[in-house]
TrEMBL record:
This is Mitochondrial K+-H+ exchange-related-domain-containing protein. InterPro entries: Mit_KHE1. The lineage of its organism: Eukaryota, Fungi, Dikarya, Basidiomycota, Agaricomycotina. It holds the Pfam family Mit_KHE1. Residues 251-266 have a biased composition (Low complexity). GO terms for biological process: potassium ion transport; proton transmembrane transport. The chain crosses the membrane at residues 178-197. Residues 41-66, 251-280 are annotated as: Disordered. It comes from the Eukaryota. Keywords: Membrane, Transmembrane, Transmembrane helix. The keyword Transmembrane applies.
Amino acid sequence: MTSSLQKMRIIAIPLTRPNARLPSVAAVKTNRLTYYQFQMPERAPNSTTSKAETGGTKGAGSKKRGWLPEEGVANWATQRATRIWSDFGKAEGGWKLKTYQVGQKLMDRTEFEELALKSFDPSMGPSIANIKQRHVLDGKENTSIPLIFPPSQMAPSEVLSELRAYTDFRITRHRRGFYFWMVVIPFTAPLKLIPIIPNLPFFFSAWRAWSHYKAYKSSQYLKSLLDQDLIVPEASKELDEVYMRPQISSVSTTMSSSSSTNNSWSQPPPESPPNQQSYSRHNLLLNHDDVPRIVSLFHLKANSNAAADLNRAIDQTRSRVS
C-alpha cells in the first residue's frame, strides 16, 4: 500500500490564468482551467500481489479461478473494446473507418476533465479503507501523494482548494451524466433488430454511461484522498520553466511583460480581486509546442494518451476562453 502511494503523483498543469470573465459553471469555486495528469503505479503481471497489498482477501499464493481474467472483467472488457476500436481506425475505407473518424470527432468534444478522470484507475492506488484500519499514517513512512504545480502560476494555498472544488463539481456532473445515459440506453437497444446495420447509438450511449461512471468513481476516490490529507502540494521549478516565455494572446498583450519576466519561479504572482486584474481576450498559457516538453519532463509513456489528452485540453481551452 505504501508503495502505491510512493509511485502515485498528480500533476496540475494550469491552462489559463484566473479570469473573472472565464465562462464559469455552477458549484465550481475556481475561475481558471487546469489539466490534471494522474500518474499511477504500473499494474503488476500477477494481480494477486497487488490485491494482497491493497487489502484483498486472497493471499499471495492464491490462483486464478476459472475463466475470469486476472486483471478483472471490467479491465479486460475495456482493453478488448480499445483494441477493437483501434482496429476500426486501421481499416481501409468502409463503414468501420467512417465510424472511427466520427467517433474521434465526438471524443474531441468530450470534456478533457472527463477524459483525464476516466484514465485514472483507482484500483491501482492505495485502499482508503485499509489506511483507516491499519493506521499507517504515523509519520514514519512516506504516505503522501505529491501534487506537482508551477509556483509562478498557482499559489500553494490555492492548489488543494482548486483540486477539491474540481472533484466536488465532477462528482455531481458525472453522477448525473451516468444516470442520463443509462436512461437513454433502453431506447437505443431496439435498433439492434435492424439487420446488417450495427447499433451505433446503443454502443455510443453505453460508452458515454461507462465514461461518466469511471470519471465519477475517480472523482470520489480523489475526494477521499483529499479528506485523508494524503495529497500534498509540491512546487516544481522544472514545470515552472515551461511557462517562462511570452504569454499567448490572440490580440495585443495588455499585461505588463516586464512584471512577468521579473517574477522568480519561487515567487507566485500576488493575488488580487478579479475586477482589479488586467486581462487579454485570449488567456491560454500553453500551446501545442509545449506538450512534448511536458511529456518528456515527467517521463510520460509514449504509448499513453497523455500527449493527445493534453493537446485536446489546449484546444478545448482555446474554444472556451475565446
